[in-house]
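Dear colleague,

Thank you for sharing your sequence with our group. We've completed the structure prediction you requested, and as agreed, I am returning the results in plain text so they can be pasted directly into your records. Please verify that the sequence below matches your submission; if there's any discrepancy, let me know and we will rerun it promptly.
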Amino acid sequence: MAGTKEIKEHISAVRETKKITNAMYLISSTKLRRARDELNRTRPYFDALRTEIMRIFCADSKVKSRYFFAPDGSVPEGGVCGVLVITADKGLAGAYNVNVLRQAEALLREKPNARLFVVGEYGRRYFHQHRIPIEASFLYTAQSPTLHRAREICTLLLDLYDRCELDEVFVLYTDMKNSLSSSALSSRLLPLERAHFQADAGTFADDTEYTFEPSMEEVLNNVIRSYLTGFIYSALVDSFCSEQNARVSAMDAANRNAEELLSTLSLQLNRARQAAITQEITEVSAGAKAQQRKHRKEAQQS
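Please find the predicted structure tokens below.
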């Protein structure tokens, strides 16, 4: 059994670690609430954009746009695929990074000619270590998802798509369904499916006539840019919320483990102290008995 000194040092180390994990728990909880509030404040705007796209398809379901599949629903084969992977800048978040990287590896196997775009230092290091080339890496975006950063990413991807350097674009991120469940998702960003915007088109089936200037196609293409920016921003914030939620869970588990370990170490320390006290009492008792025997022997000899 370890001595009392070693046990005390172990207890001190666990308590210091618990302070760190508890601080990370509180910080992640605060960041999670702020990110949710920011997303809720901006979501109505992008919901309105989606409604306007639906209104356009209600007016003409066969309107042409390079950002959508053909009206007949045909899917082009082959081509160059752009893959945007959203990870965290650091670990200590459970399986958050691992799950999205597994999704990315599976998609890269399906799309061997894919061009990789990475958000987050964790993902950048992972692909660098595995010698997977990265087209572009967006630094500091994972820890501070803003509309400005989402617009920068969207502009880069759209420019490559407009120049026909990319034929399709996927975004891989983590969706937080609730505080207890989250999952890594792979969503097609470009081209978009018309059915996704035509499902509720009956809502606008009335006699109202709409005029689109300069043309319906130009209006649609312009709205799509803002819509895709909102989609990327939503994916960034959703991933950020999932990361903080995973870190909250991980740090909470670490705190509970620290409490259990401290309880075990305290029990060991008490046992070590009792053993030391018992040993001292035994030694004192043995010494006292030895002195008594010595005194009796001297008394008999005299």
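Summary note from our side: The radius of gyration is 32 Å.

Kind regards,
the structure core
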